[in-house]
Amino acid sequence: MAVRQTELRPLGKSVGRKEDPRFIRGKGRYIDDIVLPGMLYMCLVRSPYAHARIKSIDTSEAMQAPGVKLVITGEDLAAMNLAWMPTMANDQQMVLATGKVLYQYQEVAAVIAETREQAVDAAQLVYVDYEPLPVVVDPFKALEPDAPILREDREQKSNLIFHWEAGDKEATEELFRNAPVVVKQDVRFPRVHPSPLEPCGCIADYNTATGKLTWYVTSQAPHAHRTVLSLVSGLPEHQIRVISPDVGGGFGNKVPVYPGYVCAVVASLKLGKPVKWIETRTENTTSTGFARDYHMTAEIAAEEDGRVLALRVKTIADHGAFDAAADPSKFPAGLFSIVTGSYNFKEAFVEVDGVYTNKAPGGVAYRCSFRVTEAAYLIERVMDVLARRVGVDPAELRKRNFIRKEQFPYKSPTGWTYDSGDYEKTLALALEKIGYEELRKEQAEKRARGELMGIGISTFTEVVGAGPSHTFDIMGIKMFDSAQIRVHPTGKVIARLGVRHQGQGHETTFAQIIAQELGLSTDDVIVEEGDTDTAPYGLGTYASRSTPTAGGAAALCARRIREKAKKIAAHLLEVGEEDVVFDGVAFSAKGLASRTVTMKDIAFAAYTNVPEGMEPGLEATYYYDPPNLTFPHGAYIAVVDIDKGTGAVKVRRFLAVDDCGTVINPMIVEGQVHGGLTEGFAIAFMQDIPFDEDGNCLATNWMDYLVPTALDTPKWETDRTVTPSPHHPIGAKGVGESPNVGSPAAFVNAVVDALAPLGVEHIDMPIFPWKVWKILREHGVTE
Amino acid sequence: MRTYQGDFVIDLPRQTVWEFVMDPQRMGPCVPDLLKLDVESETRFHTLVRVGVGPVRGKFNLTVEVTVTEPEESAELSVRGGGMGSRVDMKAKLTLSDTESGGTKLDWRCDAAISGPIASLGGRMIDNEARKITEKLFANLREALSSVSEQVAATSTETAEPESTD
To answer: Per-residue pLDDT tens for B127-142?
Structure first.
């Protein structure tokens, strides 16, 4: 249960969330709640075709429609040199289509009118003459030599975006040549969508008198968005203020810059009025950043007892029409090379081919640090394939292959240095807590009766805290993060951070870190984020980087203040600085516990009574460049029963044991785990964005793309171990994505385990009941 | 690309059926939910029809072009147009043949490329909807032709008794 805000030394306690009263009582302020005087509304005209040449666009009738102020086409943008914009993956993307369209629902024109309804109606009156072109939706076909070339703007006349490798090819081949056991499995991670409750949107407000653009936007990274906007528009950065208000869920979907944003800004610059653009659900699902869409093949070389030797992975990544993947620029396939997971492979070799197809662009880090989810799913799935082949229990196989506690810091064969971990302890706790032995006995009895029960294990390693500037950047900007803390005379604190939460509970979590470091309660600390005019420069909240980076910045920034506070305390206590001790609540003179001063006394003194020569005031800023990433891990176990009549899978139990290092607020961690598990469950059993051969997107809303309700969602059981990060200021690693990264494999492993007596080795997600039913029918289990 | 096809028999001579289906003024009103018909020429006309597939509801502007491949036997129709951000491109083929009983068999085949919200949002419902529209179209056609056959009967009576007219 939540504890009171006034608690001192709040770190590690379930302090009640500061943000809840406003969210629960409907007092949050989201983008569509903001109404500015004279505001206009924008609606986008989108392509019905997945691939077609644009012969002409007739906007004359739309311009005559009631209330219409402006219609923008790609040609208008081209005249302003804004028809194309850079993507985060060093590709370029059309803002409004010129020449041809490359995916269904691509942005073709923007209509701005006095009301939203007028804009929507007038958008119907923009006539576009299309000449349909051959469509490529299958990435494998896109790579065939006679495939139509989709990107005529690129120098390279091929649909291959990049080929990327990691690991030692020769050494891997060598181990494969001599290995007693080799298993191979094709695994597909479907195209899924983050589907935040609040879709994307913005209001661009250009003030013609001051020349300042205020841009309200649903952003996970306001500062990065400001820099990109400045680079694209030519407006100087200090004349752009980005405000990210309350954001109703991000999950990676609110990291990219979308064409609608640019159009709204152009419209406001042209009209000198605020222009609002809010997406519909269908627009969000069909045209903004999707996630995953990896076609993977993994091979493991192993000893006869299941001890792994080498891993070989080939992957085709479908990036859609533009490579707009959110990845640090050095890693074309993100952190996919973490695919050796928790296991002590001697060698590994990973290849990824990125491919253009006639689909919406993207590849966002949907509750996943840049392709770690795909990697974790692949290795956890294939470890089970190996377990079955060598006849070893999947839990035992994992134990045999874990990287040992004493091997940390561990250098992986693809070049990552894992900071810390204790995989055996975490798995042991999970097995004990779920009653693994008894479950296996129960399963054997059920099998004897012809019932289908499965147990699935996933012991994944996650990589978070994208930040180390030696390897990480977004469009060249180094991925540090920042905090600025200001202590007021009465000891009340306003802290501003460079990240931007979308429901993760930063206002409480960071307040706890700062309060802990300063000897205050979280009640004394207000955390503000999301306004580039007030917050220090930061790279935003995604990829579970907030606590590892901004959390580090907050702790170190508070320590800077504590250093000065200690000097003031010495002055007030009339002792030498070296004789002042801090116990987390107050400063006292060494050996004289009765003589104490609190942070409140010190804060007042900082503005009224500082030692001679000292600068008054009590504030600090810290830009934290972490020395390394952090590597949370976990052991997840799913128990499923399959209905033989319908093929429906019932998740009877699910246990998640996470290790995210130091826990700041257990209640918030548990909430994050519940949310991520629900998403992982949805991916495993409900979600996919398929396309027909004409490139029509077949999941465009929540009728076709299912989002689990409370009725669908299993009851989650959670527990944790704590292996602090050795390099993080408070030992925290980050947890938000772990459940989404680790759980899909546990679900699928459980279903495959249930179907194993039929000889099933793999089943691709999403595991719809009809898929299972078909398998049962093929094997004569059901009629 | 979706393909729909079928056939049905009309109890009228082939020439009568041919003349009917090749006349936009007579054939046009058989289109279900027709709101407006605008005949540009014998081989080209425009229609405004009401469309509703699942959540996609609105009006479609369609341009139909007719090409005769074999007079009184076969013709091709190209239907292009759309609305509400959706597009329809159809190629239809009609073939008429005599039946043993002196009637006409009409074979039809339609290849339709449907894009935009109507295909993606209404995708799962579209085949059923297409079947319903086709059934309605041919029901209308049958009804219209049966009135033609009455007219034909009437006309033949009239020709048989020319003196009865003034």
So the answer is: 888 888 888 988 898 8
CA-based torsion, A576, A577, A583, A586: positive or negative: positive
Query: Percent helix, strand, coil in chain B (nearest 5)?
Result: 35, 45, 15
**With the C-alpha atoms ordered A622, A625, A626, A629, is the resulting torsion angle positive or negative?**
positive
In eight-state DSSP terms, residue A212 is P
Q: What are the structure tokens assigned to B32, written together? A: 């279900």
Asked if pLDDT for residue A75 goes beyond 80, the answer is yes
8-state DSSP, A205: E
Report CA-CA distances (Å) from A195 to A88, A706, A772, B158, B159: 20, 10, 26, 70, 72
Q: Is A280 left (phi over 0), alpha (psi -120 to 50) or beta?
A: beta
Q: Which among A49, A700, A704 is the nearest to B115, CB-wise?
A: A49
Closest C-alpha to A16, from A716, A720, A547, A509: A509
What ipTM is given for this predicted complex?
0.85
- Strands A275-278 and A40-46, sheet pairing: parallel
Q: How far apart are CA B137 and CA A501, in angstroms?
A: 56
Cβ-Cβ contacts under 8 Å between A and B: the total is: 56
Are A481 and A521 a contacting pair, CB within 8 Å? Answer: no
**Taking all residues of chain A, what is their mean pLDDT, rounded to a whole number?**
96
Q: Is A550 helix (H, G, I), strand (E, B) or coil?
A: helix
Q: Between the CA of residue B51 and those of A177, A431, B60, what are the distances in Å?
A: 62, 57, 7
Q: Which residue shows structure tokens 């003459």?
A: A129
Task: Spot the catalytic one: A46, A292, A367, A500.
Answer: A367
A368 is catalytic: yes
Instruction: Output the pLDDT for position B152.
Output: 62
Cα–Cα nearest to B18, from B104, B137, B91, B76: B104
How far apart, in whole angstroms, are the C-alpha atoms of residue A654 and residue B36? 60
Q: B119 vs A130: CB contact, 8 Å cut-off?
A: no
How many Å apart are CA A119 and CA A67, to the nearest integer? Answer: 8
- DSSP bridge pairs for A294: A189, A317
> Which secondary-structure segment (H or E) carries A776?
helix A769-778
- Placement of tokens 């005249």 in the chain: A79
Q: Is A220 a catalytic residue?
A: yes
State the residue for tokens 């990435």.
A139
Question: Which residues of chain B does A45 touch, with a Cβ-Cβ cutoff of 8 Å?
Answer: 85
Would you list which residues of chain A are within 8 Å, Cβ to Cβ, of chain B?
45-50, 104, 123-124, 130, 132, 282, 286, 692-698, 700-701, 703-704
Task: Name the band, by pLDDT with cuts 50, 70 and 90, for residue A130.
Answer: very high
| CB–CB contact A692 B119 (8 Å) | yes
CA distance B70 to A577: 105
Dihedral, CA of residue A744, residue A750, residue A753 and residue A758, to nearest 10: -90
Q: Are residues B36 and B48 in contact, defined by beta-carbon separation less than 8 angstroms?
A: yes
Q: How distant, in Å, are the alpha carbons of A422, A490, A563, A635, A637 from that of A433?
A: 17, 48, 44, 11, 10
The residue that leads in pLDDT, A88 or A728, is A728
Helices A394-401, A423-434: inter-axial angle, 10-degree rounding: 160
Query: What span, in angstroms and rounded, lies between the C-alpha atoms of A427 and A633?
Result: 10
Q: How many residues does chain A have?
A: 783
pLDDT for residue A88: 86
Cβ atoms of residues A136 and A150 within 8 Å: yes
B-chain residue closest to A121, CA distance: B84
C-alpha distance from residue A545 to each of A370, A476, A699 (Å): 11, 18, 30
Catalytic residue among A200, A368, A557, A697: A368
Residue A1, pLDDT > 80, answer no
Q: Find the CB nearest A48 among B55, B87, B123.
A: B87
